[in-house]
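Hey forum,

I'm writing up a methods section and want to include a predicted complex as supplementary material. The small molecule is zinc ion. I've pasted the protein sequence and the SMILES. Can someone with a working setup run it? I'll credit the forum in the acknowledgements.
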Amino acid sequence: MMTRRHFILSPDHIQSGDQLILIYQGNLLTRGDDYLWQAADVVAHLQVNTQLHLIDEQNNNLFAAHIDEDVVAGLDAEQRSLRGLVFSGNDTALIDAGKANQVLDWYRAHRFCGACGSPTEAVLAQRAVFCSHCEKQYFPRINPCIIVLVTKGREVLLAHHSRYQSKYYSCLAGFIEMGETAEQTVQREVMEEVNVSVDNIRYVSSQSWPFPSQLMLGFFADYNGGDVVPDGVEIEDAKWFDVAQLPQHPSAGISVAGQLIRRYAELVASGKF
Ligand SMILES: [Zn+2]
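Reply by user p_vandermeer:
Happy to help. Structure tokens for the complex are below, copy them as they are.
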């Protein structure tokens, strides 16, 4: 049986062939477009107490670390914003670096027990921390959200969010509240954001979204009544668009919004909507 490595290693336990993702103040360190560092090239620059966190549980060879300014200078590295990866087209980098950043941030935010305030200890055999004072164990949390494409025949309802800088339209989205089903969230969010009721809600696909740690559950929903009225807070504008005349919208690569739009356009094109 294959022995599983610990979820946290120190630099002196790294092996040749291991790779590292390095994060400095929320930015990804790269050399050109390359974001994976060979452990052998980096390990001499790291402090002995640096924690290396396992990112690839299947192959056990990819680790992530928060590093300090001296390491950045020593490696002659460039810094790249993680959000910038969303538009880079490099989906693997976004997934790897997004996970690395979530894992590192989660440990940093759980150095103390939320119940009693004592320092926690990292559990090495799984991704968890433990408070030996009150015996609570903490596991990483992912926040589920819905993202929904509301459809009406050949048309889809897309919204311009107030946080978008460009004239960009996308699906509606929101966090699942405690006690809600995902379908209830779809109905509530669509009503709150654009004053429209929906039914025939069906799940399509999902996407991990690491800003900071969401799981986006993507749905189609049929229009069931109401005039479109943007809430004016989150949503600046919302309109029906024929799938053959879409505005600027997310691409279908890693983005579940883009996938929902493309899939629905394909259904329309094949007459199966
Ligand atoms: Zn405690």
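Some notes you might quote in the supplement: The helical segments are 39-42, 69-75, 91-109, 182-194, 256-269. Residues 237 and 248 are 14 Å apart (CA to CA).
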